[in-house]
Amino acid sequence: MGALKIPRPSKPRIVQPRLTDDDVVAHLAKLSDSERAALLERVSAIVAPRPPIAVRATLKSSDVEDAVAPRPSTPPPLPARALPKIIVAPDPPPQAVSPPVPATPPPAPPSSPPSTLPSTLPPVSAIVARRSEPDATEVLFEAMHELDLFDSSAHAAAHCLATAIRVVPSLAGLVHLYDAKARTFVTVYGHGPRAERRVLERVAAEDALIARAARDKGPIVVDYPDAGVPAERHAFFGDPWSVLVAPIVAGGVVLGAIELVDPRDGAPFDERAKDAVCYVADRFAEFVKERGIDVSRVVRVE
């Protein structure tokens, strides 16, 4: 028999995978800054250009040393380039600018307003009349129109006095009505400092000031101290200096009186104030004549 030939085993063939550009980019993205810098140094050392080696017939030891000498890990710096020279041009000299020629406006039609305003304008008060308070006539008319809404002379007296003081601002005011049973005047309403204490106070039927106003058939103004010692009901509000007394008269019968004490503007009561309170007293007299006087419904509020 012939000899058996056994084939020698061949070396295993190792096939390395082929990396693509995306694989390389993905791998670099996973590295830290320090790992990426170390990898760049290694790659730079591999791809850096090497100087040519002279081939001789015989090699010297110095040639071998030059061949294996370590090479710098970083590439040599690039040669400096000269920057271009920049020349700044000077600013042009200023030129005289001629003023613009005003255009001639077209002639305005006859119906159009003037194109220029007057040098002096009228004050605002002359253009728009503004009033800080409503007109006294309007206040009196509206307030007295509401008088029929009240069911008692005491409530109507309070409304009339509030209206009079609104038109003629004063420190205090009182309304007196005649009590036929007691034959005296009784204060049914008061306005001012501590005026509630004057309610239900009695005033003599022959009171000089009310009688004088009834004889004059209209309001009178009493100036203190020229008129003598102030009445007790007036001195209750301090040191009075001017008092307006308007009688409440219906059919020649004195039903009471409306009194205002010390105007707030500092000036004595004038004819305007007398006319305003007289109008209120006349309207109140008509109300009392129709509804009567019920003093029993007057209550003092302490």
What does this structure look like?
The protein has a domain of 160 residues: Beta-Lactamase (2-Layer Sandwich), CATH 3.30.450. It is of the alpha+beta class and 302 residues long. Helices cover 32% and strands 15% of the residues. The protein has a 6-stranded antiparallel beta sheet. The longest helix has 21 residues. The protein is rod-shaped and about 165 Å long. Helix 5 packs antiparallel against helix 6, helix 5 runs parallel beside helix 9 and helix 6 packs antiparallel against helix 9. The chain has 9 helices and 6 strands.
Name the descriptors.
rod-shaped, 9 helices, 32% helix, alpha+beta, six-stranded antiparallel beta sheet, 6 strands, Beta-Lactamase, 302 residues
Query: Into which percentage range does the β-strand content fall?
Result: 5-15%
Order of helices and strands: HHHHHHEEEHEHEEH
Strand order of the largest sheet: 3-2-1-6-5-4
Figure out the total of helices. Answer: 9
- The stretches of 5 or more residues where confidence is low (pLDDT under 50) are 113-122, 124-131
The CATH architecture classification of the domain at 136-295 is 2-Layer Sandwich
* Euclidean distance between termini CA atoms: 154 Å
Shape: rod-shaped
Overall helicity: 25-40%
- The CATH topology of the domain at 136-295 is Beta-Lactamase
Average pLDDT number: 77
CATH class of the domain at 136-295: Alpha Beta
What would CATH call the homologous superfamily of the domain at 136-295? GAF domain
User: Could you say which structural class the secondary elements and strand pairing correspond to?
Assistant: alpha+beta
**How many runs of DSSP E, i.e. beta strands?**
6
- Estimated radius of gyration: 58 Å
Largest sheet: 6 strands, antiparallel
